[in-house]
Amino acid sequence: MSDMTSTEQQAFKHYANAQSTFKPPLIANDNAFLGDVFESTDKKSPISSGFYRLEKGTPLVYEYTYHEMKIIVDGEFDISDETGQKVHAVKGDVFYFPKGSKITFTTETFGLGFYCGQ
Q: CA-CA distance, 94 to 91, in Å (whole number)?
């Protein structure tokens, strides 16, 4: 039972075992899945976070309309941009994608990333 009144807001939100239990919805082709776990309610500087999963198959080309940080939490991605930069990303790698960048994601197996975007 909470001691909070209905006018008080919680200081934080928690999603137990999100990496293994959260299932993001299909967003493109038949192999790209993405879904927010949490979103802020800040109208001036909204921020969201969630999981992106790509299965072997069609590459996903995405143009960012916001800034995003992503950490690879499982599997692998081949990530490239419009400048020709290419990286084979694995668990533990962290990326920053600036607003306006056009990124191509592909994988020979699967990849799972956790993102935070603003």
A: 9
DSSP per position, the chain = -----TTPPPS----TTHHHH--PPEEETTTEEEEEEEE---SSS--EEEEEEEESSS-EEEE-SS-EEEEEEEEEEEEEETTS-EEEEETT-EEEE-TT-EEEEE-SSEEEEEEEE-
Residues ≥6 apart with Cβ < 8 Å to 23: 33, 35
> How does residue 21 score in pLDDT terms, banded at 50, 70 and 90?
confident
pTM comes to 0.85
